[in-house]
Amino acid sequence: MTRSALLVLADGRFPAGGHAHSGGAEAAVKAGRVRDAASLEAFCRGRLHTAGLTAAGLAAGAALGLDLHELDAAADARTPSPALRAAARRLGRQLTRAARATWPGPGLDALAAAFPRGAHQPVVLGVTARAAGLGPEDAAHCAAYEAVGGPATATVRLLGLDPYRATAVLARLAPEMDEVAARATAAAREGVDALPAASAPLLDITAEQHAAWPVRLFAS
After folding, report:
1. What is the CA radius of gyration of the chain?
2. Are 10 and 193 in contact (CB under 8 A)?
3. Which of 80, 119, 142, 200 is the most exposed place for a label (fewest CB within 10 A)?
4. pTM more than 0.85
5. According to the model, what pLDDT value does residue 218 have?
6. What are phi and psi of 91, to 5 degrees?
7. Cα(166)–Cα(21) distance, rounded to whole angstroms?
8. Minimal CA–CA distance to 220: which of 212, 76, 32?
9. Whole-angstrom Cα distance, residue 62 to residue 148?
């Protein structure tokens, strides 16, 4: 394992397309549920322990070498919103392209061949971590961080929120991110059927509403 590879993969500047997605924050801002640092923290905490935990489990499973078709089907089953399924596969395609250019190898080539329309992003994240020489815990940490880092960054743009305060939210959530990554990895070691399936119905509902907006800043 190389710590530097983990930093590269988790860097928000890694060209995998995540900057174009708000993780549900844009719809939450419009609805008034996210309006300041305190409500952002509540939103991120809820997202971390639901969608974030689920994504972390899928990523850890892929990094462990579990069957990718089973993992992708599990991701589909855990994503009831068609808009979010489409976004996850779009992000998966973009991450596959970036990963193959950064850490070329047979694992990523096989993934691209098996899923020409794109696998779910957490699954691709796990395969990418494996190609980079990282372990399942690293993949789970990346997924957990993405679950809250994306909304925090998006809220700075959407609300003009002080970036120092947004970053402080992430720092306060760090212990919970570690806990989520550990839980997700432990579950992944038990196999696909043991993966977390925490749900966030409001994220699914607002994702469908957001997809129908004629004008929006973020893709999802």
Report:
1. 16
2. no
3. 80
4. yes
5. 94
6. -65, -35
7. 17
8. 212
9. 21
DSSP 194: G
Give me 55's structure tokens.
Answer: 């994504």
Residues with Cβ within 8 Å of residue 59, at least 6 apart in sequence: 122, 123, 125, 126, 129, 136, 139, 140, 142, 143, 184
Query: What whole-number distance in Å separates Cα of residue 13 and Cα of residue 209?
Result: 28
The answer to whether 200 touches 51, Cβ cutoff 8 Å, is: yes
Tokens of 56: 């972390």
Record the tokens describing residue 178, joined without a space: 């570690």
Got the DSSP string for 19-32?
GG--TTHHHHHHTT
For the chain, 220 residues long, the average pLDDT of each consecutive 10-residue run is: 85 89 96 97 98 98 98 97 96 97 96 96 98 97 97 96 97 98 98 96 95 94
